[in-house]
Give the backbone structure.
Amino acid sequence: MSEQLLSPKVLGYWTREQLHDTPDESGFFCVFRAARDPETKEMDVQELLYVGEHRSARYGLEHHPDHDKWQAFLQPGEELWYAVGLVGHPNRERLTAAMINAHKPRFNNGSQYRDRFPFDETTVHIYGKKHKLQSIFTVESHA
């Protein structure tokens, strides 16, 4: 392995009821807390809660065992929103590890990648639905 640039387009946002519309392709997924913006009164992403990956992003989201835990965290009027970034199998784990290491989502506390990045230096450039995500970041190897 060597230094690498990964540039996923993040697609979304979907609600729990819309998960069947998410891509059935290899990728990572983000779970967000969405709430009404006090100024605009529109629902908007407030916080990244979790990052995961699966060979089918849709299946990974629809069948994730932590949905109840995420839902229980929400305050009245808040919703879970989901986003997906498509990435092939060779880079899926590396990209997910970089996302967790850089963003440290609260529901990834038990992840081996939160404080450790076992891959070579990786720069990630996110585009698309990237609200509450760093657009460009580099994670260095620290096994």
